């Protein structure tokens, strides 16, 4: 990715440029401190969960339903149990505790017993001496089904027979804001569809369960929310939470919930049943079948505006396909409805939102859930409105963007920094990339690359815009709290916090906080397990805010313990002392000593919590202060489209984002680049096809992830550092909002190049073909 302009404009280097020389390791907040595990991961020595091993290890395999909807007549495990090398077979009859679990709502069975509701639902699990034996034994479990017609169209779910005892409706939010009789002089309408995206983790999903002498069990997995997983596991195992321990190990990165709880549950059951360690490594197919996906969404919109293009009213209907179980669909729907109008001032808004069950694969938390789907729709509406009014698309948006102090359609006032106009102006005014030369040497620049069948004369360039917004932390009354402990001894600091490092950089941030606060170079972050106090899930920037805030408070308490004796000795307050590069000095220069000398062999430690201000659920009219804070991003996309073949090449994505404060420039640039690239996949290639509820091609051959060759030039043209006063360090989450804005910007650019409506993501070739040009 080319990013020379980003460095010149913002001073933020790309991730590759920011790697420091070994003798120049940076310190503290605002520096590009490299991750502690960077070398191990690049050299291939990092111990991922799939590398786990234990003495006397057994191997697990799971039998999954081949049908999206069926009634189970019988389950016969006799043949599987009698196979040589098989140590245990478990079904729903072997679940000693509650048979149901779920992240948002406990509505999903550990093993299906009477009905299967989606393709790949677990039926039974096997533990054996060899992985091949386990797989063969799982295949030997005989299940008799009465196959039922699946409900796969979410619109049909309203009238279909209940697929679940809780019914087909997961949640309905009717948002009412302003005057329902308001009408604009100009009206545009649209119908939009967003496909099913899989988080597609590159690292294999794996785990190890080890029985404990007290009758409990320890699970070693790449969990992103270990305490929530522990509580779920304990309830299903019929054990007290203190007898179940989750140890986080080998997380290879996450863009969603990293581990499916349904993957972990059979492991512990088999370990408890056999009294032996049990390991399970999912195949790629099992990974696609097991974990949650992005919600496919159907959106109907009607925008009203006056003659100058100022929005008067937005009406929308939003239908989320939750799949077979609720999972986090309620949260996703709240975000979709609340942000249905985007970062624009809309005096009147009437939004109907539903999340419904179907027999499709379960949907759940994927980065930017809810907000990404509506962004694609409301930005398409803004393009339509600009075209109808004869206005420049960027100008129309500038006339409507919100700012700090404006009110969301939920009635919540935007109190955090909202420099949306500044962001949009930055990408609009950034120089456009040069046109490719019409020569053989430049064929690789054409859509389809050098082997493409198109003609250079059929290529059209388009420029489009996308402005996204996301909420940070949990919403609607979620209790966001994290606890951290900081210890220092012998010149070394240790941080204990159950915040999982999922690639978002928390471990690096924690080291930077302690370095800056205590002036200690060597800082270690302890491994995470559930013996530590909870820190919550690693999503929506919560560990930067909540866990980082807890580390900062604990470090400051230790700082006070360190400085208090010196301040008392010299008759001054601790505020008059500062720590820099391991040295303690007073404002007048009278005191000058090192941190090590001041410690004098002592061990100092402190524990602190961080809890943001409370939020509230949306009421029956969709009103309420549901969000702690928000982050915004503007992206300008430049694309080349072959209007005969419908192939699209993303030439450049210019990004401007409000980040609150840059804590680690290299890390921040890498997160933005990764989010933007993920958005390219959403816009052009990623679509998990599920005809009649069956996942087609559950592998990375059939599911087209964008590679380095698909990544465009990403120009970070502006980072607005207007600190959020209620957030620790003033920083905002940076990963999700580029994912939200980039698909909308790419679709906008394809519309500009072709004149076609482009109302579906990912963009299919036929949507970009201009037939009259043939």
From TrEMBL:
<feature type="compositionally biased region" description="Low complexity">
    <location>
        <begin position="1"/>
        <end position="22"/>
    </location>
</feature>
<dbReference type="InterPro" id="IPR046867">
    <property type="entry name" value="AldOxase/xan_DH_MoCoBD2"/>
</dbReference>
<feature type="region of interest" description="Disordered">
    <location>
        <begin position="1"/>
        <end position="39"/>
    </location>
</feature>
<dbReference type="InterPro" id="IPR037165">
    <property type="entry name" value="AldOxase/xan_DH_Mopterin-bd_sf"/>
</dbReference>
<dbReference type="InterPro" id="IPR008274">
    <property type="entry name" value="AldOxase/xan_DH_MoCoBD1"/>
</dbReference>
<dbReference type="InterPro" id="IPR016208">
    <property type="entry name" value="Ald_Oxase/xanthine_DH-like"/>
</dbReference>
<dbReference type="Pfam" id="PF01315">
    <property type="entry name" value="Ald_Xan_dh_C"/>
</dbReference>
<dbReference type="InterPro" id="IPR000674">
    <property type="entry name" value="Ald_Oxase/Xan_DH_a/b"/>
</dbReference>
<dbReference type="Pfam" id="PF20256">
    <property type="entry name" value="MoCoBD_2"/>
</dbReference>
<feature type="domain" description="Aldehyde oxidase/xanthine dehydrogenase a/b hammerhead">
    <location>
        <begin position="43"/>
        <end position="149"/>
    </location>
</feature>
<dbReference type="GO" id="GO:0016491">
    <property type="term" value="F:oxidoreductase activity"/>
</dbReference>
<dbReference type="Pfam" id="PF02738">
    <property type="entry name" value="MoCoBD_1"/>
</dbReference>
<protein>
    <submittedName>
        <fullName>Oxidoreductase</fullName>
    </submittedName>
</protein>
<dbReference type="GO" id="GO:0005506">
    <property type="term" value="F:iron ion binding"/>
</dbReference>
<dbReference type="InterPro" id="IPR036856">
    <property type="entry name" value="Ald_Oxase/Xan_DH_a/b_sf"/>
</dbReference>
């Amino acid at each position: 990715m080319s990013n020379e302009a980003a460095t010149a404009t913002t001073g933020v280097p790309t991730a590759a440029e920011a790697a420091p020389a070994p003798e120049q390791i940076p310190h503290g907040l605002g520096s590009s401190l490299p991750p502690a595990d960077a070398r191990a991961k690049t050299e291939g020595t990092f111990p991922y969960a799939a590398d786990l091993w234990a003495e006397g290890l057994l191997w697990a395999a799971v039998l999954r339903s081949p049908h999206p909807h069926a009634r189970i007549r019988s389950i016969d495990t006799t043949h599987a149990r009698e196979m040589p090398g098989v140590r245990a077979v478990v079904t729903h009859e072997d679940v000693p505790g509650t048979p149901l679990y779920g992240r948002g709502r406990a509505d999903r069975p550990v093993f299906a017993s009477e009905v299967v509701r989606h393709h790949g639902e677990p039926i039974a699990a096997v533990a054996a001496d060899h992985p091949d034996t386990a797989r063969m034994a799982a295949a030997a479990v005989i299940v008799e089904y009465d196959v039922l017609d699946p409900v796969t169209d979410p619109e049909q779910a309203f009238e279909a027979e209940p697929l679940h005892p809780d019914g087909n409706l997961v949640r309905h939010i009717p948002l009412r804001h302003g005057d329902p009789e308001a009408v604009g002089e100009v009206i545009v309408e649209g119908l939009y569809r967003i496909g099913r995206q899989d988080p597609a983790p590159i690292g294999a999903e794996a785990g190890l369960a080890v029985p404990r002498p007290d009758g409990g069990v320890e699970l070693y997995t790449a969990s992103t929310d270990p305490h929530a997983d522990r509580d779920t596991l304990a309830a299903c195992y019929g054990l007290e939470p203190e007898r179940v321990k989750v140890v986080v190990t080998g997380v290879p990165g996450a863009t969603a919930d990293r581990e499916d709880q349904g993957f972990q549950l059979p492991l512990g059951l088999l370990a408890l049943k056999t009294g032996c360690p049990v390991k399970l490594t999912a195949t790629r197919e099992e990974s696609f079948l097991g974990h949650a996906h992005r919600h496919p969404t159907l959106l109907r919109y009607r925008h009203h505006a006056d003659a100058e293009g100022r929005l008067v009213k937005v009406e929308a209907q939003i239908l989320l396909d939750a799949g077979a179980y609720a999972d986090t669909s309620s949260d996703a729907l709240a975000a979709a409805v609340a942000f249905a109008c985007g970062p624009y001032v809309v005096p009147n808004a009437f939004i109907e939102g539903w999340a419904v069950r179907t027999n499709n694969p379960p949907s759940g938390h994927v980065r930017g859930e809810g907000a990404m789907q509506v962004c694609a729709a409301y930005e398409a509406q803004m393009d339509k409105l600009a075209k109808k009014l004869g206005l420049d698309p960027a100008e129309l948006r500038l006339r409507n963007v919100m700012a700090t102090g404006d009110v969301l359609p939920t009635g919540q006032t935007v109190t955090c920094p909202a420099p949306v106009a500044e962001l949009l102006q930055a990408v609009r005014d950034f120089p456009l990339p040069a046109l490719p030369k019409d020569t053989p040497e430049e064929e690789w620049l054409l859509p389809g690359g050098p082997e493409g069948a198109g003609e250079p004369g059929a290529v059209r360039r388009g420029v489009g815009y996308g402005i996204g917004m996301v909420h940070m932390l949990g919403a609607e009354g979620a209790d966001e709290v994290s606890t951290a402990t900081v210890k220092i001894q012998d010149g070394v600091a240790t941080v204990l916090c159950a915040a999982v490092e999922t690639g978002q950089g928390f471990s690096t941030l924690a080291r930077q906080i302690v370095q800056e606060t205590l002036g200690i170079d060597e800082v270690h972050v302890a491994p995470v397990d559930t013996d530590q106090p909870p820190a919550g899930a690693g999503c929506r920037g919560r560990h930067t805010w909540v866990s980082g805030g807890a580390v900062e408070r604990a470090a400051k308490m230790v700082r006070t313990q360190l400085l208090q004796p010196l301040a008392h000795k010299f008759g001054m307050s601790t505020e008059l002392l500062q720590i820099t590069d391991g040295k303690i000095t007073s404002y007048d220069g009278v005191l000058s000593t090192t941190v090590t000398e001041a410690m004098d062999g002592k061990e100092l430690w402190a524990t602190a919590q961080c809890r943001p201000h409370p939020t509230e659920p949306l009421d029956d009219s969709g009103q309420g202060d549901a969000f702690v804070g928000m982050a915004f991003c503007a992206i300008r996309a430049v694309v080349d489209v072959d209007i005969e073949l419908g192939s699209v090449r993303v030439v450049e994505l210019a990004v401007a984002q409000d980040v609150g404060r840059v804590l680690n420039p290299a890390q921040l640039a890498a997160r933005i680049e990764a989010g933007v690239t993920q958005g390219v996949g959403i816009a052009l290639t990623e679509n998990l096809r599920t005809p009649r509820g069956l996942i087609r091609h559950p592998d990375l051959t059939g599911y087209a992830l964008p590679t380095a060759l698909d990544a465009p030039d990403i120009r970070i043209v502006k980072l607005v550092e207007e600190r959020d006063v209620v957030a620790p360090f003033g920083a905002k989450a940076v990963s999700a909002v580029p994912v939200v804005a980039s698909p909308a910007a790419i679709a906008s650019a394809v519309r500009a190049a072709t004149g076609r409506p482009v109302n579906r993501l990912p963009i299919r070739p036929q949507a970009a073909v201009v037939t009259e040009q043939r």
